[in-house]
Design a protein that fits this description.
GO terms for molecular function: transmembrane transporter activity. There is one protein chain. By secondary structure, the chain is α+β, with helices and mostly antiparallel strands. It has two domains: 427 residues, MFS general substrate transporter like domains (Growth Hormone, Chain: A, Up-down Bundle), CATH 1.20.1250.20; 60 residues. It is 71% helix and 8% strand. The chain has a four-stranded antiparallel β-sheet, with no helix packed on it. A hairpin with a 4-residue loop joins strand 2 and strand 3. Helix 2 crosses helix 3, helix 5 runs antiparallel to helix 11 and helix 7 packs antiparallel against helix 8.
Length: 507
């Protein structure tokens, strides 16, 4: 009973800190559209969004370097203090992003500063996950390792869930009037979710300071058997390097693209391709996450009984086969082509731009359909100012789904996140079991963060870029995750063992 209580305390403390780090990391992606307008030139909205997604992706690209730096520290000095350091770096960087002035104030210094802080975030996250997963796994009994480590696996999705919730709460709390609350949030309210993270980090640091070191690592250290050079042992010896490459190309690469397609790209697709409004696009994801999250534990626990391999590979295969029809259904649900128009209203207003003499005309056309779907088209028209040329009109389309289509869309995203739980729930236990204690932090962190950080983290950017190249095919972005997951599935089927043989401590 005492041992059981102890493991839950360990899981709680590790998970809270890891959840906060994921929150800090993903708050940027959740606000990509708003941040594009804040930190990049407004002349080309598509280029600004792609620049923001590229900055978001930069944090993923450096995660493998964080895995090397902090993985080495974790195998040299211990798990506890290493992922305590990563928490401080992550929290400080997130807080600082909330303080950076916009592009209109400091010009190109704004995106440069944001990029630098995203790189620090990526380095920190590269050290956090491996430490938390290793720490929990080294406390868990072997026959329940999948179950206990799956709780750590929930933190990435829950971090996204919390980030979306904080954004929506902040936005609605700024003003009772919807139009004013949106304007305030886009102007300065977006900073609040970044700034409040510092409070969460302080709480987590306090909890983690009270944690003890991993018993397996403590035993190795007491016996003088810790690795003198974790990097050399992990990647300089053939047997271990083979396991690192197998973990990457047969598991984490496919897992990464499934994770980011089912959650981040799905949200971006619903907002930017389907044109579903800000609140609905985020609450759709929130509900789907809420319903799907328990399945991380279900599949993690199940992997203790039947093995990790086939659960993870089944999730990849389902994604490959069904992504196109699922995303196509999202387009169908948001289309107004087959709907019957009930009424149409038009409102035109003239507005003065803040601080200058320019004025512009905003035309709002609202289409209300018989099934309660609403489509609003907003056109910002000609700017009038002495000596200035006419500015090209900018048109924005926003749709509000009726209740039936809204919940159908929730169901579709739930299915995609269910695939996420299949590939992600068992993977911490899978990675831990591949490598010996003395080099585990380093060895498991690198393939995980290349698979997730590079292959997975680039998914929203590459998928969005593909849709700008193949403009007639809104599903063109799915080529990337389908190909990557497909390759990983084939390699996994051929080379992964159902029960991996862990390398000995003498490796």
């Amino acid at each position: 009973m005492k041992q059981s209580k102890g493991i839950w305390k360990i899981i709680g403390a590790s998970s809270l800190g890891t959840l906060i780090e994921w929150y800090d990391f993903y708050i940027f992606g959740s606000l990509a559209t708003v941040l594009a307008n804040q930190f990049f030139p407004k002349a080309n909205p598509t280029a600004a969004l792609l620049s923001t997604l590229a900055t978001f992706a930069a944090g993923f690209i450096v995660r493998p370097f964080g895995a090397l730096v902090f993985g080495r520290l974790g195998d040299l000095i211990g798990r506890k203090y290493t992922f305590l350091l990563t928490l401080v770096l992550m929290g400080g960087s997130t807080f600082a992003i909330g303080l950076i002035p916009g592009y209109d104030t400091i010009g190109f210094a704004a995106p440069v500063l944001v990029l630098l802080l995203r790189l620090v975030q990526g380095l920190a996250l590269g050290g956090e996950y491996g430490g938390a997963a290793t720490y929990v796994a080294e406390h868990a009994p072997e026959h329940r390792r999948g179950f206990f480590t799956s709780w750590i696996q929930t933190t990435a999705t829950l971090g996204l869930f919390v980030s979306l919730g904080v954004i929506l709460i902040t936005r609605h709390a700024l003003d009772a009037d919807q139009a004013k609350s949106i304007a305030k949030f886009n102007d300065w309210g977006w900073r609040i979710p970044f700034l409040v993270s510092i409070l969460l980090v302080v709480v987590s640091i306090y909890i983690r300071l009270k944690m003890s070191e991993s018993p397996l690592f403590s035993k190795l250290k007491a016996e003088g058997k810790t690795s003198a050079n974790p990097l050399k042992e992990s990647f300089g010896k053939k047997d271990n390097l083979k396991m690192v490459l197998l973990a990457l190309f047969a598991a984490t690469m496919g897992q990464g693209v499934v994770w980011y397609t089912g959650q981040f790209y799905a949200q971006s697709f619903i907002e930017n391709v389907c044109k579903v409004d800000f609140d609905q696009s985020r609450t759709i994801l929130i509900w789907a996450i809420l319903f799907a999250t328990p399945f991380f534990v279900v599949f993690g626990s199940w992997s203790d009984k039947i093995g990790r391999k086939w659960i993870m590979l089944a999730g990849m295969l389902l994604a490959v086969v069904t992504y196109k029809p699922l995303f196509n259904k999202l387009i169908t649900l948001s289309s107004v082509t087959e709907r019957t128009l009930e009424k149409k209203s038009t409102d035109v207003g003239m507005y003065a731009s803040a601080g200058i003499t320019d004025t512009f005309r905003v035309s709002t056309v609202k289409h209300i359909y018989t099934d309660a779907t609403v489509m609003t088209t907003i056109t910002k028209d000609t700017v009038y100012a002495s000596g200035k040329a006419t500015v090209k009109p900018v048109t924005t389309v926003v749709k509000q789904l009726n209740t039936r289509d809204y919940w159908t869309m929730v169901g579709i995203v739930f299915i995609m996140i269910l695939y996420v739980t299949m590939v992600y729930g068992p993977i911490a236990a899978f990675l831990v079991e591949l490598f010996p204690t003395r080099i585990r932090y380093t060895s498991m962190s690198l393939p995980y963060h290349i698979g997730n950080g590079v292959f997975g983290g680039l998914t929203p950017f590459i998928a969005t870029l593909l849709t700008t190249i193949h403009t007639t095919d809104p599903l063109a972005g799915l080529i990337y995750p389908i190909v990557i997951a497909g390759i990983c599935f084939v390699i996994g089927v051929l080379y992964l063992k159902t029960k991996p043989e862990q390398l000995s401590e003498a490796v």
